[in-house]
Amino acid sequence: MVYLTRLEHFNAAHKLYNPKWSKEKNEEVFGVCANENWHGHNFELFVTVKGTPDIDTGFLMDVKKLSKIIQTQVIKKLDHKNLNLDVDFLQGKMCSTENLAIGIWNELVAHIPPIVKLHCIKLYETSRIYVEYFGE
Amino acid sequence: MVYLTRLEHFNAAHKLYNPKWSKEKNEEVFGVCANENWHGHNFELFVTVKGTPDIDTGFLMDVKKLSKIIQTQVIKKLDHKNLNLDVDFLQGKMCSTENLAIGIWNELVAHIPPIVKLHCIKLYETSRIYVEYFGE
Amino acid sequence: MVYLTRLEHFNAAHKLYNPKWSKEKNEEVFGVCANENWHGHNFELFVTVKGTPDIDTGFLMDVKKLSKIIQTQVIKKLDHKNLNLDVDFLQGKMCSTENLAIGIWNELVAHIPPIVKLHCIKLYETSRIYVEYFGE
Amino acid sequence: MVYLTRLEHFNAAHKLYNPKWSKEKNEEVFGVCANENWHGHNFELFVTVKGTPDIDTGFLMDVKKLSKIIQTQVIKKLDHKNLNLDVDFLQGKMCSTENLAIGIWNELVAHIPPIVKLHCIKLYETSRIYVEYFGE
Amino acid sequence: MVYLTRLEHFNAAHKLYNPKWSKEKNEEVFGVCANENWHGHNFELFVTVKGTPDIDTGFLMDVKKLSKIIQTQVIKKLDHKNLNLDVDFLQGKMCSTENLAIGIWNELVAHIPPIVKLHCIKLYETSRIYVEYFGE
Amino acid sequence: MVYLTRLEHFNAAHKLYNPKWSKEKNEEVFGVCANENWHGHNFELFVTVKGTPDIDTGFLMDVKKLSKIIQTQVIKKLDHKNLNLDVDFLQGKMCSTENLAIGIWNELVAHIPPIVKLHCIKLYETSRIYVEYFGE
What we know:
Chain A has helices at residues 23-30, 63-78, 83-86, 97-108, and strands at 2-14, 39-51, 81-82, 117-126, 129-133. By secondary structure, chain A is an alpha+beta fold. Chain B binds chain F through residues 1-8, 53, 55-60, 62-64, and chain F through 16, 18, 20-21, 29-31, 93-99, 101-102, 127-134, 136.
């Protein structure tokens, strides 16, 4: 079993704001992250798959194809977007890095070719905060 | 002459959108950066001052005081903000990294203690794009 | 199960020196790290907790609270300190990165809120050497 | 159980080219990586061992000895080399990062001192692609 | 005057080998870098232009156009190539990082739009070695 | 004119403490940096030389020789040392990053071969603070 990881980037706006709460409660819980006019981040997304190298290629899978799948299924929906307003798979959920990582897993998992298995989504919100999700 | 640099961070939303132009022209010129629902970045701000080290301290100036000045004069106005909507010194200007660097210089320069001189504002928008401004 | 990691920094002096051994034996075993006048490092500390995101916040726990706990329980005791002389929880132990990581776990574990579990302490001594400890 | 990781570097040329296939099929499968005149990378190699810290040293093992073992058993064979032509343990195998990581594990494992166990080979081909191998 | 910098990457093979010298002299002068079977690097290329921001866009120039010019004029000729064998503008020159930076300047300078001026080529061969060239 | 830069590292202890002042004044001016039991850093040292590439080698100078000069003249005196107690060229001076950069310039400048000129000492104390000195 070998693990292969690909890094992709996206830049997005979001806010942490629970519509069931008052503005005051949102500011109390989320502080500056609740700014109604949004803020944003350069997200760094590490996608890890696992499997056995093919004898003829030496690859688990072609990492350029992995990159293309991540671009098509995830980055296109997130890059230069507003996570709260523009992203279908986050509708009705809080826009935390935790929920974003879970959402990215769910978007990707059906599109990973069966020769490998999706292992981990690791998502940096800033250089000092990241989240990992292993699918369960 | 010695140069001293301090790095600070801020996370902000913005869009590149010229209100004098149609939506179509904005999309043609700015592409995904014109998304009306905003996007955002983790900005990295390097502030450089220059001068001569003091004999008693060995310092050009106390770098913690420099950090505090940057925090008070700049970061507080930019961090977790919308650059287009929330930042007084960007009103009426395009929210490019170029204009943001010039604006940061103008906000800081009068607050730098006279024992040093402000030398450079270096501003990363992403890890692959940065702008430098030397005050003229 | 989601994993959330927060990075904190501290700068400290230490030496690798076993008081039960002669100066010669210490120099033989630890080389330049045994310099009696100390040396030091910029340590980078990654603290990982695991749990389930809260529905109302989207958070495992508020990462600012996690940062505050790490600051109060660990960084305040280590930053700008001498690990051999100033740190109560390292008394009687060798000041290796391994023992420092274990000590940090022990200081933190009782202060992590019960909605999550402490998962990993990852500690960089330099950009080329790091240690991980999972609590057992 | 504590985990200790050491980073080493090497610079090497390689190509992805299956000699059983035509030039056309190689270019179709491997794209620019099949360039017959080679290309190359700055590889970053993280080697992780696990064990229990020694009471007298605080060490799993002396990280300088670990570095020396990696240098002697692996780096000397790979640094400033052509992976396809110059490296005995890659003969007859495709020169993928996956196979290189497995090969490095096999070269190292018998030379790791028995006080620790080899845990992981993590190998960056570029800053955006890496592979991990845990020995099985 | 504002300075705008864009980072691009390329991976290439090369060797340091002066065909006017014997193999022995090449090995004496260039050491492992003279390996006849080549070695390689992940090069990082920073291209800086300078000028005045446009009022309507806030840009010196569109950084995506700058990226495209670098891709077309330089990266396409260097990425996944052998610098000694495949690159027309290095023919008859030693393949040092110094000469590569000068060559990149010469390839780019005529293609930079006249609204800005090419200011600097900064080229990393490894994370510990880089070269800068300002055109004279 | 081309500029060539080499990065070296050293780990050292120091404190900011003016012996002409009381303990109270030192703590007031230098805060935690005045801790009498020292603290320390992983310093990163960038040394830049400038000159014209040699036709036969393509080099300003052999970067391995530059590295060796920095090692011999500077790193050996600073690495795993106490800057206040162990370093002859800092005696009688405050151990600030500013003075350390000037001291490194003075140690190096006479040992740089005349085919190039020493251009800049850039010294990181932490990833957020650095100093540059150009020799005057």
